[in-house]
Specification:
By secondary structure, the chain is of the alpha/beta class. The protein has a domain of about 210 residues: Rossmann fold, CATH 3.40.50.720. Helix 1 crosses helix 7. The protein is globular. Pfam families: RmlD_sub_bind. GO terms for molecular function: methionine adenosyltransferase regulator activity. This is dTDP-4-dehydrorhamnose reductase.
Amino acid sequence: MAAKKTVVITGASGLLGRAVADKFIGEKDEVISLAHTRADRDPHYTKLDLMDKEAVEGFFGTHKVDVVVHCAAERRPDVAQADPEKAAKINVAVPAHLAELARQKGFQLIYISTDYVFNGRNAPYEVDAQPDPLQSYGQQKYQGEQAVLAVRPSGAKITVLRVPVLYGRTEYNAESAINILRNVVEDQSGKTYKMDARQVRTPTNVEDIARVLYDASHFEQPLPAILHYASPAPMLTKWDMTRIIAKHLKLPIDHITKDTTEPSGATPRPENTQLSNKALEELGIETREETSFEDWWAAYLKE
């Protein structure tokens, strides 16, 4: 049985953060779930502004922590593209500060990064592949990776976990670039939509990522600098995902057109950023998915 740990989860009110907290709590670790604005209305969260360096240092000065799972980020590519300076504060400066605190305090830091650090032209990507992000979001997450890994040679226990596009149980569908497709399917008002059929993705359930994070954080040997986790299932386009969701909603999608053209003026998105799970598998960490994409949606939409 794995030793119980005190685990801090940043961004714990978000889609991934909630799943991670649930997993660690279910395994009987002591969990401190950090949030900012949502902490004002939910006492389960500990309120902390990660961009307030003094407050963050004060928190870690008064809490003995074993692991920090850093889920907090500005994850929306269009938002990061529109205001990169603001997004960089959470995507670059915050993880850099946490890495320095990991060095000082001795806790393990797992930094959640993205497949968007790659340009999408050379998939599948191993952990040692050279990043080449196409847009501000990917650039910032890569800069965050560089910042945290720069502290690692000092002996700090720091690992980057890159993950792809996520889905799962949302508080509102816009929390996920996949769950939001349900809104498009359900909009039977007469409005028309185009749905991308070029970019292939590996939609990955947040509960599977939470399991991998738990196993990694309780791994008995030091972790490598970078790990990847993505669903091992066949890749899908947004058009594929939309059809699956519509099938289980039993709704027509005559108002949605399959789009194979490259969007002009939009935030650039890589066409294929499939991540290889080889590094995790070599550690013996389970990389299966508990439920397939279609089976998960079939069950979820019946609730």
